[in-house]
Amino acid sequence: MDIELDETQRMVQKAARDYADRVIRPQAADIDKHERFPKEILKGLAELGLMAVNVPEELGGAGAGTVAYALAMQEVAAACASTAVTMAVTNMVGEVIARFGTDEQKQHHCPRLASGEHVAGAFALSEPEAGSDPGGMRTTARKDGDDWVLDGEKQWITSGAHAGVFVVWARTSPASERPGTRGISCFLVPGGAKGLRVGKHEDKMGLRGSNTVPLVFEGCRVPASALLGELDGGFKIAMMALDGGRIGISSQAIGIARAALAESVVYAKDRKQFDKPIADFQGIQWKLANMKTDLDAAHLLSLRAAWMKERGLPFSKEASMAKVFATEAAWRICNQAVQIHGGYGYTREFAAERHLRDVRVTMIYEGTSEVQRIVIARSVLG
Prior knowledge:
The chain is an alpha+beta fold. The chain is 51% helix and 15% strand. The two termini are 24 Å apart.
């Protein structure tokens, strides 16, 4: 793997960093405090090409590749994790449609996601009784004439109240005939579709500027052309999307942790105890050394997975390794950041407490740490 960035990757990284420093970071605390969905910030990201980084240029995207996307995600997450997860899911939705969609589907949705006309995209796989086990899915899609009719519930849907398009999974064959994940298909449902009801926004511990809602489908009718990919072939789409999504979430966790480390260094140099900066104490130095080592290891694992995906190589194991290590390392880093800040780290005067709240969920969504270890172990065992 070549760890030297090319010109495009550096340009995307710089554009994301400049926008994050200038526009996003000054608003991050307010976004968190008031649970404000940052539509104007997302529009700015779209104008920079950051809502469709790996979507081909002919579909309105930047076409900059997975490595560039991972780098951009780190920069945005270092400023505001809530904004970053909206960006991550929208990028994932755009990539899924670009890869599996018909020409009509791609031409209709991808440019709208890239430009910000669709404020966001949403990924509707999880259900109240089917999280890590998609085979337990109960949402159904039945054929009625030339249409499909969807009924069921989805849970934990990022940007669900604002999405211009939902990628929705539903059972199209009875579990008695095709058990487990074999009878699941994928559909594109427009935001505001008749029969789609958006539930109450979840009152979350972290990522409070990210909209998270349940969805209810009650006789939601979509045309036959809404089927994405092959009939009963939806599980493959979900797993391929989640593999790429895990690179995005590992990058999000790295960005949050990077901010926590940087703020800890500043605080340790400024804060005095016993007539000298606490950075002079070995106990603090060792914390910072461990935090930096964890951060760099996570960064390299994430870039390896991104590099492999970009080159069309198998990367499922590497994405899971990056995700489980980066998210758990980021949790350790953010936890130590609060400890270094002492009592101040437990207050909203400093960002350390927000980083700790925000980073916790990265070990859960896009596949829990336990699921990642299953994926890795299967590969190791052959």
